[in-house]
Design brief:
By secondary structure, the chain is α/β, with parallel strands linked by helices. It has 10 helices and 9 strands. It has helices at 2-6, 9-13, 28-44, 55-63, 125-134, 147-155, 166-172, 176-180, 207-219, 222-226; strands at residues 16-21, 47-52, 69-73, 84-86, 92-100, 118-121, 141-144, 161-165, 184-200. Strands 1, 2, 3, 4, 5, 6, 7, 8 and 9 form a 9-stranded mixed beta sheet that branches. The longest helix is centred in the N-terminal third of the chain and has 17 residues, at 28-44. The radius of gyration is 19 Å and the shape is globular.
Length: 235
């Protein structure tokens, strides 16, 4: 009887589910995502705790069962056969744009993308796939491990371009050096990335209800209001 109770959805609902996110607590993305999981908790009766984990550590911890979930991940984040389950509804669709001092590039014309001196996040599998289909040589990419190095790469001239979402770009505008530069976001978007919540397999019974709540939040406009019609990026 005790074993049945501990394995039931009701026992799980009494727990706090630890969810990883890739931006630190002082980042605007973390604040918005914390509000998102709080609203999600109100609609599901679950308690979520959003915690900062670097991308690769979150992946390893979730696969090992030491995390309950991983927020804002794409379909490429985990391999087939990993003990994880994706929500059926996305958190948000992430639009990526070229960011550069050179506004002559045309996001709609791949002929202008040749010989780009591009910086990109090392762990971004969606970006890696896009680079391959865009015909940009992989050996011409300056790979970095986080957004801070990405920003500095542009400011210091180590790279001429990157691709970035609007929310991260707007957060960079808080930096006086970046704001004083000629680096700007170039529209329209060149890539769309769909971000989900990934849960440990042990929480399979909860995922359908969580997915329904996520869908309701999107349809009501709440998700859009949380992110101010912006986008987020984990990968």
């Amino acid at each position: 009887m005790i074993l049945c109770l501990l394995s039931s959805p009701f026992a799980i609902q009494a727990q706090t589910l630890k969810i990883a996110f890739c931006s630190p607590p002082d980042h605007p993305l973390f604040t918005r995502m914390a509000r998102y999981v709080d609203e999600l908790g109100k609609r599901t009766g679950l308690t979520f705790s959003l915690e900062y984990y670097p991308l690769e550590r979150a992946r390893l911890e979730l696969k090992a069962g030491r995390l309950d979930g991983d927020m804002g991940r794409t379909i490429y984040a985990y391999d087939e056969g990993d003990p994880v389950i994706y929500t059926s509804h996305p958190v948000i669709i992430n639009q990526l744009y070229f960011v550069s001092e050179d506004s002559s590039i045309d996001p709609l014309n791949r002929e202008t993308w040749k010989n780009l001196k591009l910086a990109a996040l090392r762990d971004g599998k969606d970006i890696l796939n896009w680079i391959g289909t865009a015909g940009i040589p992989l050996n011409s990419i300056f790979w970095v491990k986080n957004f801070e190095i990405l920003r500095l790469s542009l400011l210091m001239g180590r790279a001429e371009y990157t691709i970035l979402n609007r929310t991260v770009y707007n957060s960079w505008l808080d930096d006086p050096d970046f704001l004083a530069s000629e680096i700007r976001m170039i529209e329209p978007a060149v890539l769309s990335i769909i971000n989900y919540i990934v849960f440990a397999e042990k929480h399979e019974v909860l995922v359908p209800g969580i997915s329904r709540a996520m869908k309701e939040m999107s349809e009501s406009g709440l998700t859009e209001s949380i992110f101010d019609s912006q986008n987020l990026l984990c990968e």
